[in-house]
Amino acid sequence: MKVIVHDLQEKLWQELGMRLHEKDIVIGKEKNIADSRIEELMGSCGQLIIISRCVYGGFSPFIQQMFDRRRENFEPFLEVRQGQSQYVVNHENKSAFGLICCFYGDNITSAEEQSARIQSVLDGVALRARGVKVLFYDTADKLKQLNNVCV
Amino acid sequence: MILLLDGGYTSACDSKGCLESIRQNTDEEVISVTIKDAVDWNSVLRYLEDAGAIVLAADVHMNSVPACVLRFLQKVEQAVIDGESIGGKFYAVLYTALYEGEQTSAAMEILKNFCVHANITWGRGLGIGGNGIKTVAKGGLKGIFWKNASDFKMRSLQEHVMFIKERVQGEDEYVDPKRISRGGYVRRINHETKKNHRVKIAQN
C-alpha cells in the first residue's frame, strides 16, 4: 500500500492518471486529513510519496503544513539516534517504508536542487524511512513518469 | 530601522528573546511583525522598504521553517517581482528544540534560496539548538542550573546583533547547549513533555 501526499490541483492530479491500488491513500488539497493521521498512515504504508512544488529548495507550504500540524497539539518526545537528537517516531513501520520526494517546478536552480535533496534525506532520517528517493521534474506534465517509479 | 519578522510557530521559537537582544544592543528603532496568515500587507511592504536590516526569527521542524513563513516569503518575492525594492540585508535566527543547532542548516539554505529569488542580500544566519530549555526553566537550584545552561544562546545572539547593527555579512553560526550533555538534555525535555501532555489531557 502507498500513501501519496500532493499539492496539485485536483484536475491536474486526475490528468496524471496515476495507477492506484485499492488500498492506496491520496491526500491532496481537496482531500485533507485529520491532524494526527499522517503519522498513523506512515505506520501502515510501504511507500510514502510526496509530490510538491519546489519552493526555495524545499517543500511547498501545503506539504510543510502537514508536518507542522503533527506538533501543533503535542510536542513530540526526543531520543538520541546515531549520535544526534531526533523526535521520537510513534508509528510501528520504522525502517520499513520507502520515502519518495518528488519536486516539480520550472527554473529549479542547482542550489535549490541541492537543498531539496538534503531536506528530503534528513526528513527520511527523521521519519525513519527505509530509504529515500528524490526526483525532479521541470513540468507538472512530466510527473506522469512517476508511474514507472511507484509500485 | 530594523524589522523583526516573528515566524514562531511553537514554544521552541524564542522570538521575544531575539527582539529583546536586538533592543538591548542597538539604539535603532526596531519594528516587530508577527507572521500569520492575515497581516496588514501594506504596512509590511512599507517596513520592508524602509528597513536597513530584516531579521527573521522562526522555529524549525522537519528541516524547514513553518508553512506560514514560507507563504509570507512567497508574498514578499511576488511584491519584489511587482516592482517593490528591498534594500535591507536579511538575517535569520532559527531555533530548534533538538539539541544540535546544526539541525537548522537545511532550513537556513531555504532562506538563502529565497533571498536569491527576491534579490535580497543575505547577511548572516544563526541556528540555535536546545531551545526546549527555556520551557523547563524553574526556581530553585535546578532552575539556576538550567538558566545557566541556557545562557549559551545569549552570547551568540549578542554577536549576531553586532552583525545586524553594522549591516555586515558573516559566516552562519550554529550553537548547542554545550554545558548540558545531549543525553541529559533529552531526558529532561522528555520528562517535561510528559508532564505537559498530562496537563493538556486533563484540560481537554
Structural summary, described in words:
The complex is a heterodimer of chains A (151) and B (204). Chain A has 151 residues and is of the alpha/beta class. Chain A has a single domain, classed as Rossmann fold, CATH 3.40.50. Helices cover 26% and strands 25% of the residues of chain A. Chain A is built from four helices and seven strands. Chain A has a five-stranded parallel beta sheet with strand order 2-1-3-6-7, covered by helices on one side. Chain A has a two-stranded antiparallel ribbon with strand order 4-5. In chain A, strand 1, helix 1 and strand 2 (25-27) form a beta-alpha-beta unit. The longest helix of chain A is centred in the C-terminal third of the chain and has 18 residues, at 110-127. The model of chain A has no long low-confidence stretch (mean pLDDT 86). Chain B has a single domain, classed as Flavodoxin domain (Rossmann fold), CATH 3.40.50.360. Chain B is α/β, with parallel strands linked by helices and 204 residues long. The model of chain B has no long low-confidence stretch (mean pLDDT 88). Chain B has a six-stranded parallel beta sheet with strand order 2-1-3-4-5-6, sandwiched between helices. Chain B is globular. The longest helix of chain B is centred in the C-terminal third of the chain and has 22 residues, at 182-203. Chain B has helices at residues 15-25, 41-50, 67-81, 105-118, 133-136, 140-149, 152-166, 182-203, and strands spanning 2-7, 30-34, 53-59, 89-95, 122-128, 173-175. In chain B, strand 1 (2-7), helix 1 (15-25) and strand 2 form a beta-alpha-beta unit. The A-B interface holds A 55-62, 64-65, 67-68, 70-80, 84-87, 109, 111-112, 114-115, 118-119, 122-123, 126 and B 9-11, 61-68, 70-71, 73-74, 97-100, 103, 106-107, 109-114, 116-117, 132, 182-183, 185-186, 189-190, 193-194, 196-197, 200.
